[in-house]
């Protein structure tokens, strides 16, 4: 089944083409099979009728030659050869002449059966006639004579020897002991064996040309139908990537015109919404920069250098987040250049801030570094730490080196999470009952944001319950 699915085209053009080609081929095969059956039945009826006609003619000729005195038969045969006008080539032999027959053919065997039965009915007192079909180049007429040895005048009006030979019917019957009458003739339709072949090359060529013409028309129609859909797909892809795409042409079928109009109207509405949202966040960002600038100026007036540096770092972080607000609205991350991050410095500052706020956080330095975006990574780890402090009151942060990766683990000492709810914690606005009780102001977005940042760094975020209680969040980043 998987192998068949792999052969199934992915594009609509390929699928329609495959279905139409398969349908045409099946139709042609079924039609050929029906036509071949009818042709064979018709050929069988015609051959039976022709066999009876030839048999009656042959029985009349046998009666005539049998009625002649033995000495007259040769004279009459000679006169017939010179005058012409006879259906049969006739020769007299003293014994039966073996004939090399054509390859077995059902229709030829049926004709011989009908011939034999009709001759037996017309000549009940004579021995059964010997019947055979042979090709002219292999036909012998006596013990020492071949058909090609005879004068052309004897056979050219009776048998088809060239340019396209036809199978020759040979009838041999014993008139008296030691006297055999040899008669050769063509069937009324000389090419009756090949005329009913539905797989003849000329018929196959004609059907092949017909099939090719129909397939070409089908391909053109399918291409004409799917081309507007391809244009719609390109326009949707370009719009999704923020590129400018020309308006869709309102040509083609009525259904596509309606779809193109609906898509254009939808694109205009979405574009207006995006522009309005960008203007809103631009104004918010502009309004927030002014008080941030004032706070920076006032922090310069602080005498305590350590406190001044803390204020400046917080204001720089806030300024970076304000600058990234508009980019976040455009579905992109805050722009930062990746750099080497010392985890002890990054995590130590977060731990100190949490302890100043009265929280209990455990951490031991490890000397590990990772490469990434400092502010984005701080935002992700901060979300995990905030959750741990909100719901567990006490948190522990640890780092360790793994094969090809660095792991950062954040554990709380809260009630943990039901196993069936772990997978849904990353969903937007997803909050469990005990989470709403501990933090009414939360929105349920922190874990989703954290996972997005970690995955953007090529890592992964894993949530699980700790064996000793509480939630255990592990960040794995490339070393």
TrEMBL record:
Residues 223-275 form the HAMP domain. Coiled coil: none annotated. The lineage of its organism: Bacteria, Pseudomonadati, Pseudomonadota, Betaproteobacteria, Burkholderiales. Its EC number is 2.7.13.3. It is an enzyme of class 2 (transferase). Gene3D superfamilies: 1.10.287.130, HAMP domain in histidine kinase, Histidine kinase-like ATPase, C-terminal domain. The chain crosses the membrane at residues 12-35. Pfam families: HAMP, HATPase_c, HisKA. This is histidine kinase. One of its GO terms (molecular function) is phosphorelay sensor kinase activity.
């Amino acid at each position: 089944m998987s192998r068949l699915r792999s052969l199934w085209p992915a594009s609509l053009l390929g699928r329609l083409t495959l279905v139409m080609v398969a349908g045409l081929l099946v139709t042609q095969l079924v039609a050929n099979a029906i036509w071949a059956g009818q042709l064979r039945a018709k050929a069988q009826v015609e051959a039976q009728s022709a066999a009876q006609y030839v048999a009656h003619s042959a029985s009349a000729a046998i009666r005539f030659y049998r009625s002649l005195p033995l000495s007259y038969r040769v004279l009459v045969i000679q006169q017939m050869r010179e005058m012409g006008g006879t259906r049969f080539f006739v020769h007299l032999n003293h014994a039966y002449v073996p004939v090399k027959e054509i390859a077995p053919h059902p229709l030829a065997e049926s004709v011989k059966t009908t011939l034999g039965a009709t001759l037996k009915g017309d000549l009940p007192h004579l021995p059964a006639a010997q019947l055979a079909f042979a090709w002219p180049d292999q036909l012998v007429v006596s013990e020492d004579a071949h058909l090609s040895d005879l004068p052309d005048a004897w056979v050219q009006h009776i048998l088809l020897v060239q340019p396209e030979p036809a199978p020759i019917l040979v009838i041999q019957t014993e008139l008296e002991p030691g006297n055999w009458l040899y008669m050769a003739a063509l069937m009324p339709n000389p090419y009756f064996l090949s005329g009913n072949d539905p797989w003849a090359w000329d018929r196959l060529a004609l059907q092949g040309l017909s099939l090719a013409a129909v397939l070409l028309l089908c391909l053109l129609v399918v291409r004409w139908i799917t081309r507007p859909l391809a244009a719609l797909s390109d326009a949707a892809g370009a719009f999704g990537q923020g590129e400018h795409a020309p308006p869709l042409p309102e040509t083609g079928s009525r259904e596509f015109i309606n779809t193109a109009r609906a898509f254009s109207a939808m694109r205009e509405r979405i574009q207006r919404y995006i522009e309005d949202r960008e203007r809103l966040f631009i104004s918010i960002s502009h309004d927030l920069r002014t008080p941030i600038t004032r706070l920076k100026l006032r922090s310069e007036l602080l005498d305590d250098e350590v406190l001044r540096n803390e204020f400046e770092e917080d204001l720089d972080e806030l300024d970076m987040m304000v600058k990234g607000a508009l980019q976040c609205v455009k579905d992109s991350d805050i722009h930062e250049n990746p750099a080497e991050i010392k985890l002890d410095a990054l995590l130590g500052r977060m731990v100190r801030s949490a302890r100043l706020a009265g929280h209990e956080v455990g951490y031991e330095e490890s000397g590990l570094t990772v490469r990434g975006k400092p502010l984005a990574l701080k935002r992700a780890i901060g979300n995990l730490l905030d959750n741990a402090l909100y719901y567990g009151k006490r948190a522990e942060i640890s780092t360790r080196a793994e094969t090809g990766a660095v792991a950062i683990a954040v554990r709380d000492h809260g009630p943990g999470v039901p196993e069936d709810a772990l997978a849904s914690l990353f969903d937007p606005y997803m909050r469990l009952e005990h989470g709403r009780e501990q933090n009414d102001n939360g929105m349920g977005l922190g874990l989703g944001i954290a996972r997005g940042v970690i995955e953007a760094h090529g890592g992964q975020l894993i949530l699980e319950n700790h064996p000793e209680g509480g939630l255990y969040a592990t960040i794995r980043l490339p070393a």
